[in-house]
Amino acid sequence: MSGSLIDFRSLVDSYDFAPDGREKFNTLFGLLDKAIGSSASHTSDANEAVANGIDEISNRDEPEGYLWTLWTLLIEISKRIPLDDPRVQSLVEITQKLKVKKSATVEVWGTKFSLWTDMPLFGAVMREAWNGTPNYDNSPEDATTIAQWKSLNSFAARLLGSSVESWTNFALWELRDGLEEPLESQQAKDTHLITASEWITHAGKVLYDEGRKGVPVGEDDVQSLSTGSLLKGEASGFSEARWDFWKKKIQELSVGAGAEAKKRAEKALEVIKSLEA
């Protein structure tokens, strides 16, 4: 069952429109707001209709502005959907239906891509969103940021787990920050335990398989995918040792965690147990 109405209208007022971008934004917003913002049940046919609408108004000749607007809107909407609300899965399904559509070839930033198969700029927009980490300063504003950070990680994890995207870097960054670095406050510990658990729950098989393969990372990625200060001496990227450390850290953090974080950690540990069986 879907939750209550979610009001996304503030996005219209806050968005920085590209030239001539407002009309396309309003059309995209209308499609997504009707499908995701309402409390009605969300069917596969309804999600297909949204994907069709997105495809129909896409700009193949000058795709950058359209794609940046589309991905920004999807990400900003995902941040406002509470954890476990089925509408986040509807958002994922819309991207899945886009990905399998027959794609035109478009040029973005000097490189040719398949419009929906490759989903150009989605990773770049998500990378910008990844700058919105909480401060853990107990301010009212930070409470909103924390809630949105949890939802963003859940959305990104679901996209990885469903093979819409292959951005394992976002998983590594969040798992490193939350499990491989010391955390001072209980609020930070609980938040990171929840986000780590979302990655394991929704993309655990991808992460586990990557760890078992243990493919060395390229020279350009050694620093960005390195381990945290609590896991010194391990190579950058995925490894079985890193996976084992995450498992032990989730178990450790769950002992003193709040109710929600503990519940999600238990679910993640069940996934880990199943994967390792």
TrEMBL record:
It comes from the Eukaryota. Pfam families: DUF3632. InterPro entries: OpdG, Oxopyrrolidines_Biosynth-assoc. This is Uncharacterized protein. The lineage of its organism: Eukaryota, Fungi, Dikarya, Ascomycota, Pezizomycotina.
